[in-house]
Structures are given as C-alpha cells and as structure tokens.
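Q: A reviewer asked whether we had any structural model of the full assembly, not just the individual parts. We don't, so I'm hoping you can provide one. Inputs are below.
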Amino acid sequence: MDSGPGDEALLLAVAERDMGAFRVLYERHAGWLAVRLARRCNDGDLVADAIQDTFVAVWQKPRGFRGDGDIAAWLWGIAIRRLVSRLRTRGGVAAVSGPAGPAPAAEDQVLLSVEYGDIGQALARLSPEMRAVIQAVVLDGLSAREAAQLLHVPVSSVKTRLYRARAHLRAALAEGSS
Amino acid sequence: MTGWHLDDDMLRRYAGRADSLAEGASAEQHLLSCEPCRARVTAAASVTGLGVIDLAAVWDRTRDAVEVPRPSVFERLLRGAGLPAPEARLVAVASAFRGVWLAGVAAVLAFAALAAALGDARGMWLFLAVAPVVPCLVVAAGYDPRLDPALEPELVTPYPALRLILLRTVAVLALALPAVLLFGLVVPGETAFAWLLPAAGFVAVVLAASTWVSPLRAATAVSSAWGAVVWLLAARSGSPDAVLQARAQAGFLALAAASLVIFLLRRRRLVQLRTWRQR
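A: Here is a predicted structure for the entire assembly that you could use as a starting point for your response.
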C-alpha cells in the first residue's frame, strides 16, 4: 500500500540535505497538516505560514524526531505550535474555527450516538468555547498557555473552561449510564 | 494497519469541517497513524476546492527559505539593531564582499602606522596620505557594480536610493572606522586623529561626485588629488604639522558640509542607480 520510502528513511535523507526527499516529505504531509490546521484557524495565510515554518524547522532539525511514535504525530506537534507562535506574533486574528458548520441533522445525530455512544452526545452538547478548549488541550496536546494563545483567551479561562467541560462530561456520562 | 479506515462520507465532512467534535477527534487520531487516509484527506481537500492554501506556492517559499544561506553575523547584528530584514540584507551584501578588501586596506594602513610609529617624518606623511582616503574608498567600493555584481539584482525592485546609499555608507564606515582608529593609536601625537575630518570631507565629496560619475572613479580621483597634495606639502615643508592646523581642519569641515549639501540637492541624479536601472 505504501509507495516509495518510508517517512523515517525520508527524514534520514533530509538530514543528509537531500532536497528530493524533503520534497516527497512535504507532498506527503503538507496537505493533511494544512487541512487540520485550517480547522484551528480561519486565516489561510497564517496556516500557510505555519506550514512553511513547520517544514523549515524539519529541514533545520530533522534529527528532532527521536524515533518514537509516528512521524505524522511529530509533524503535527511542530505544526500546531508554529501556528500558535504565528498567532502570537500576528495577534488579534480570529483563531477559533467557530462552531463546526451547520448543526448535524437528526438522522446524523442518531448515527453519531450509535457510533460514539454517550460520549459523542455529551461532546455535542458542549458550548463552542468549551469544545475549542477540549480540542486544543485534550486532542492537540497543547499546554494551557499555548491553548490560551491559540484561542486568544486568558490562561485562566482555558483552565476554567477545561474544568467545567470535564465536569459536564462526567455528569453527562454518569446520567447516561444510570 | 487496523483495517479500519475513514469512509468517504466522513472524509468529506472532515475536510469540509462539517463533522462533530467526536468525529473529528477520532478522524485525527486515525490520521496520525494511517498514511493512506492522510493522502485521501489531502486529495479530498484539493478536489472539493476546500484546500485552504496553495500548497505548491508554500512549497516554493519553503524551499527558498531553506536554500537561502544563514544570514551572516553582520546581517544578524544589523537585524538585532532594529533594521528590517530586507534592508539588513541590502546593507550586508555590500559588506560581504568587503572582507578581502578590508584586509588589504588594513594591511596598507598597518604599514603606514608602523612607519609613523617609528618616528620618521616620512612615515608620518605616509600615514596622513593613506588614512584619510580609506573611508571614502571603502564607501565607493560599497556601491560600484564592477566590484560588486551582487548589487545588480537588488535594484530590480524600486528602493529609495538615498536611503540605500546612506544606510550602506554608515554600515561600511562602521566596519572601516574601528580598524583605521586602531592603527591611528599606534601613531604618536595628534596626527592620530588629524585624519578624521579630512576623511569625513572625502566621503562627502565622493557621495556628491557620485551624482555625476561613478563613486569608484570619484574616490580614485579624490585619493590621487590628496596624494598629490600630501606629496607637495611634504616636499615643501617636510613637517606634517600643516595638516594639523586649525585652519586646515576647518577647511575640511567646510568641504564636508558643502559636499553633503550638493549630494542632498542632487540626490535624484545618482549616477550609480541610474546605470543600474538602465540594464
């Protein structure tokens, strides 16, 4: 299924200053990274800058990958932090991708609850602000400080919202199981 | 892999940001470890026009960014001093070529200073002949395309010529002055500083003359003229004190002021920049 050399081999070649390997790595990963980053930030220019920063960082320090886990996860870790740092220098740009499109139709809701059970419904009932915090801290693995920069809110708000979101989920799950 | 993959519908919702948080989280977790699904996300985003950015353009920028050599110490210093990156590059490009040139200048100066330090009147004259023209030669070399092919592409983009010239003059002088001053310390007495005002005057003359002829030609002419004057003075009086007199120093100051006024008045006619633009 996999065509061409693996990511590890590419990264090694990049460490040897192989521009061809660098290009392959870029074409393999820039796309999905951009899609995922765009879910965190509405500004296409900022996303493009973050992608560029990410791959420049990879070129400069290809040995930053220590061989544990997926290279994709490593790249994402760099990319989201580059986006945060771009947001910090730019400042004042709407960062949150807002509520995720139109509310899902009733049919989809049913499907979802089948697929994800109670947790899916509990998550769906979270306010957009809380969802954004959950996404940044729990799913993207950012620190509270980084999440605060990404979402343009004070660090204290991130912590409060995270606390409330947890309480909400816990309550929802307890309610569902009883 | 696990055999489980994102289905096409889910993929479309994910790329189009029409998914729920739980869906998105699950998709993203899967993407981290699934090469084929990553490729499908990229394809879905570009096919449906949901690709938010021009990946080819970003690649070009990324390649350019990594292929550009790291800025020199001097350039980073300029940026640290608050100069915007493009201007730091413009200023530093000139100085990058100056390394060898400066070494030669330093050697000549060192010999002159040594000769002067030995106490010989002829050595003193040698120092006085060389030191004042060094800054203007260095400045001229900072702009002459015959010495500096890297300058040509810079002028493809419009740039305030006056600002460029002055920035570079300051930068080049900042490089040259410490060396010249250092050698001046070897020279006994006031002679060590007597050359400062003539040097300022000559730089200004070269800047003014560059509105008519190329800076290098102007600097050569100034240097030759100064050499001749020093030679005449040395032949007549044999003492370097003539240059040290307040009247002579005031004369150099007036020369500098007058030349600067001419330069500012005629700045739109900078020969250097005109010839660059014609190419």
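A: Points you may want to mention in the reply: Residues 206 and 218 of chain B are 5 Å apart (CA to CA). Residues 272-279 of chain B have pLDDT under 50 and may be disordered.
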